[in-house]
Amino acid sequence: MNEKGLITYAERIHLAHQHLEKVLPYSPEIGIILGTGLGGLLKDISIDMEIDYRDIPHFPVSTVESHAGKLVLGTLAHKKILAMKGRFHYYEGYSMKQVTFPVRIFKKLGIHHLFISNAAGGLHPDFELGQSMIIKDHIDLFPENPLRGANLENYGPRFPDMSDPYDEKLIDKALLFAREEGIKTSVGVYAGVQGPNLETKAEYRYLGIIGADGVGMSTVPEVIVARHMGIPVFAISAITDLCAPGKIQKVTIADVLEAAAMAEPGMTRIIKQLIGEL
What we know:
- The chain has a 5-stranded mixed barrel with strand order 5-8-7-6-9.
- It has helices at about 10-25, 95-100, 100-110, 170-180, 200-210, 220-230, 255-275, and strands at about 30-35, 45-50, 70-75, 80-85, 115-120, 130-140, 185-190, 215, 235-240.
- By secondary structure, the chain is α/β, with parallel strands linked by helices.
- Strand 6, helix 4 (about 170-180) and strand 7 form a beta-alpha-beta unit.
């Protein structure tokens, strides 16, 4: 505890890890964060255990209707995985430390790779609705950084390098597999924004000008924390709405889920293939 008698962030991590270490029958090798409408991967997981977020000390609880709130332990492509069935977002009112809390726990539990999926708006003029975008880099436009404050020296350096946030070998393998299997995907730069509103036309133009190919409200914080701890990351977006000039239309959550369902089969196959090759 600190001088005010409050439990510190490091202590919260310890207590959550301690609880999970007692209840999990084995240590996972791979961590997976499943995004909006992309829970279909769960059908391919041989599930051994599900743990409600509410039962884990100091664990946040998802408030988004399209996100469940459970950790799933099981086997996928012959690897022991721990998947987040529902993630947390800054726009829900959580701090960045709360948003990225599960990634810290993943590291403590022993994962050595992190896979992330999300839904994103497609800024690139060539993108099609329902395709996927493999993230090769990102632009952090969030108003808060998850590493702000006292550095957790036991986890990583004060000033972590971010020149390779996404694992290039996994990206190359994913592209090769997608070409061989005829899966519609592209490689692009993801811009992370606060949300929860979608962007204006002027904001879409701005994002394109600064080099973004896709835009969403997640992923960047988790990647920063994973790379702070030296965890290799592979991330992929379902393009759920088109944001290039002349293609912008009003979008509902139902539209997002429908487009995510279109992208989901190909994304699932890519992630399974990569995990199987690790």
